[in-house]
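Exercise 7. Given the encoded structure of a 166-residue chain, write a plausible sequence.
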């Protein structure tokens, strides 16, 4: 039975591993997202792996010669529990694939719809159940909020999944 498995790649070796695994006949899934990168007063948008140094490969461990994956250029190792590769539930892969847009990129969040000064609830982390005001997105796509703490306004940075519209 074909299942998805996780491959840990060499540093910046995701594309190389994907290419070489596909040449061996494996079905490979390397989800990517659009990263905003600032450098030397320029902002550029680059396609980056959603999970740096990881990709997914699909095979039937009973039929495929999966042990060759560990010797593939770009691959560090196949994630395993003992001598058996560890499968990933199909629902996880399907959930990631469901977030793809027309450019085959994974859409991470819809923070572009927030406006400066908008009230947001923090739903996770050390500031959970507090309300802050949206300021901006940081360079690494984290949410910068203004909170009232101990009688003064403090700027905090939280991951995008930790906020919801109030």
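Solution.
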């Amino acid at each position: 039975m074909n299942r998805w498995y996780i491959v840990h790649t060499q540093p910046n070796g995701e594309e190389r591993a994907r290419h070489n695994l596909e040449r061996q006949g494996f079905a490979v899934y390397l989800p990517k997202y659009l990263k905003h990168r600032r450098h030397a007063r320029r902002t550029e948008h680059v396609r980056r792996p959603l999970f740096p140094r990881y990709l997914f490969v699909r095979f039937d461990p009973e039929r495929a010669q999966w042990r060759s994956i560990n010797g593939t250029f770009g691959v560090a190792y196949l994630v395993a529990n003992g001598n058996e590769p560890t499968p990933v539930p199909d629902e996880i892969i399907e959930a990631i694939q469901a977030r793809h847009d027309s450019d085959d990129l994974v859409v991470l969040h819809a923070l572009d719809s927030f406006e400066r000064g908008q009230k947001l609830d923090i739903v996770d982390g050390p500031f959970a159940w507090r309300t802050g005001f949206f300021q901006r997105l940081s360079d690494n796509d984290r949410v910068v909020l203004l909170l009232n703490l101990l009688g003064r306004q403090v700027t905090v940075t939280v991951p995008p999944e930790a906020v919801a519209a109030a």
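Remark. The chain has a mean pLDDT of 89. Students should compare their own answers with the one above.
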